[in-house]
Amino acid sequence: MSAPLTAAEQALQALGVTEPAEIDLEVVALSLGAKVKYRSLKSCEARIVGQNGRAIITIDSAATPQRRRFSIGHELGHWHRHRGLCLKCRSADIGRTLSDGRRTPLTAELQADAYASDLLLPGYIFRPLAGDIDRLTLASVKSLASQFKTSLTATTIRALSTNRFPALLICHSHEGMRWFRRPPLIPDRWFPRSDLLPESPTFRMLFNGGSEPSRPTVVKASCWFDTPIAERFTVTEQAFGLPNNRIATIVELTDPKMLEM
């Protein structure tokens, strides 16, 4: 049984969108009564002003193409959920990533982020394409991200949400772990450790300026999980760089026994 369509997905289907290349956000915005403009913004990354069923969305022209697309989706989320308000969204407000299990109120910004994710990576298109992937590697994520014109982070998180891949996405800075995402199929016992060990290729990439690995690397599970039982297993890791000197790592649990415990 297919999942119910979200409001964003309904907007896409109303336009007959069936392929990633057909997701034209400016056309979607017009269908919802909003016009998108681009200009240099100093105090925010995006904003929306609306009245009487019409709105103007302004996006920072200096942002990357993927960031501009997500910002349009984010502002359309406000238009759907918070109509009547004048909202200015800073960079920190758009596309915020929270760790599993973290309790936080469902703010207007998080609601807008969820709408943007559904608009850029609609489940009824994304799930079949992700279903053709055997393993969640950086190569497979890049392939999906290229089709949907989305960031590696957003694409990986969306792939994990399908609950098909026994993997986590973990973000680190020099100060330690910043956030992680984990699908329901992975038991709670596999909670990422807060620090990175020198044996991990991600450690070398983050602290020594190492290059992005071309393929997943096998490491001890204890590099990623601070529990005695981790010594019995190995996992694979593959990292990619993020803004602000951060690194995100896809950690795959390759031993089925890790999912049974």
UniProtKB/TrEMBL annotation:
Pfam families: Peptidase_M78. Residues 26-158 form the IrrE N-terminal-like domain. This is IrrE N-terminal-like domain-containing protein.
